[in-house]
Structure formats: C-alpha cells, structure tokens
Amino acid sequence: MNVYIVLAWYDEAKASSRGARKITSQRFNAQYVRERLFELRDYHQTALHWNTMHFQRDFVQVYRRAVERYQLLSERLGIPMHSPEMHFQLLDSLLVKGAFSIERFKAITLQGSRSAAIRETVTRHTSERTPVGDKVTIQVENQLGGEYFLTADGFYTETGRVVFREAKNVSTRKLPSLNDIQDGLFKLILFANMDRLTVDGVDTPFRVELYLSGNFKGSIALPSSSEDVAEFMSANGFSAREAHLIRLLSEEAATNARLSIVLEGHA
To answer: How far is C-alpha 157 from the chain's CA centre?
Structure first.
C-alpha cells in the first residue's frame, strides 16, 4: 500500500492514574522523528525501498534506545516493566553475524502475527454483535512475497461464494464512530482487492461486507438508490452529519464492486 514507516522510540511517559503498574501519555523522541521526516521529504524511491533501507540501517539503534529509555522511565516513575535482558535476547535473535537481518525479522514477526490472529479468532468481545459467521484467519500474500495474517469478524457462505464480514456496533448511538467505520473499511477494501481466494486449496469467489448496527430502526443494504437512502434516513431522523456519512458509505460501496455495507438497527 506504499506506506512509509518511521521507526521511533518513546522518550517520555507518565504514570497512569488507572493503575500503579501502568504508564500513559507516551511521547516519541521528536527530534529523531523530525530528522527522519526531513529525510523522507527528499526521498524519491518507493516505500518498500525506504522501509528496507531504514530497518537495515536504523532498527538496532532505535530498538536499543527504546529499551534503554524504558528502563530509565521505569526507574524514574517507579513502575516495573519488562526486563531489558528479555528485549535484548529478542534483538539478538534478529541479528546474523552481528547485523540486522530482514529475513530473520520477517520470520519471527510472521510467527507472532499468526499466533495473534489465531488468538483473535477464539476471542469474542462483549461489544461485538455479528449475527452470522465465525471468526477466521486469512493469510494474505502480496506480489513481493510478503505474508500477513489477518482476521475477519465473520465468514459465511452464500450461493456460489463466501463472504468476509467486519462488524462495528454501538448500543446507544445511532452509528459507530467514524474511526471505527474507517477501521472496518480499511481491512475490507484490502480483502476486496485480493486477486484470488483459495479455501482448502480451491479457488473460491468472494465478496466483503461491513455490518454496522446502532440505535435506529429497520435496515438497508448499500449501495442503494438515493431515494431508498433518503427514505431510510428520514424514517430514523439521522442528523445532517450522520446522513452525510451514510451517503458517503453508499458511494464507497458503489465504487468497490466486491463491497457491500449493511446498516441494521436494534432499536
């Protein structure tokens, strides 16, 4: 997705008022971040080239500074954190002949990603309200050979194809927050643009669906005609801001052929 990464470490933090063993309000070392952003401003190659170069050149020093700074914060705030020895053991596992190895990093983090995705598939959060389907792990491979393990809230079959569903739910408001909706859309649009899907080794047609539930009545599947959308919004008295968001969602679904968006009320 051509995302440029900047590695950084937290330089400051405060003790959290929620618990004696937690920190909050972490702040990056601004000078280092500023230097990398100035470097990026004049960088004319791809994100892949930058990320590879940046990790190989800077990962070890940034990691060490992060561990050292957290140790100082632990001592100053009187809050115990993971031991530096544990972190440096991980760092040692990423080195080959004393130098940072991208391949070792990929192998180790991929294993962690796979484990996290598997844990997520067996976790049901209390705020989730997905009416159909089970959580699944999806292994995505890009054209450069990169692998990613992601999850979907729901996975179910319909005539001749499967559906990946992301669900965002609220109990008192009419619509989930914009951040939650964008989070679901980001993952689904990534899924929607996969070239092919195999299930148990068999090529399988698929589509994706964003399911939004809130404190309103009835339901609508987007994209829909402007008349149907207007009637649905009028029946539920959505605010001008909510109405604008629903129109944008209908346009988003119309633009992405494999994407549908379902709004279902529980009022």
So the answer is: 24
CA distance 103 to 221: 44
In a domain, 31, yes or no: yes
117-173 pLDDT, tens digit each: 556 555 544 444 444 556 778 888 877 777 787 888 888 888 889 999 999 999 899
Residue 120 maps to a domain: no
Q: Which of 252, 160, 241 is nearest to 209 (CA)?
A: 252
* Residues 204, 134 within the same domain: yes
Lowest mean pLDDT among 58-72, 93-107, 129-143: 129-143
Where residue 112 falls among pLDDT bands split at 50, 70, 90? low
Category of 25 on φ-ψ map: left (φ > 0), alpha (ψ -120 to 50) or beta = left
Is there a single domain that holds both residue 129 and residue 96?
Answer: no
Residue 89 region, left (φ>0) first, then alpha (ψ -120 to 50), else beta? alpha
* pLDDT-derived band at 32, boundaries 50, 70, 90: very high
Q: 93 and 147, same structural domain?
A: no
In terms of domains, do 137 and 75 share one? no
Owning domain of residue 147:
125-265
Q: Amino acid identity of 85? A: E
Whether 259 is in a domain gets the answer yes
The C-alpha R_g of the chain, in whole angstroms, comes to: 23
Give the predicted TM-score (pTM) of the model: 0.64
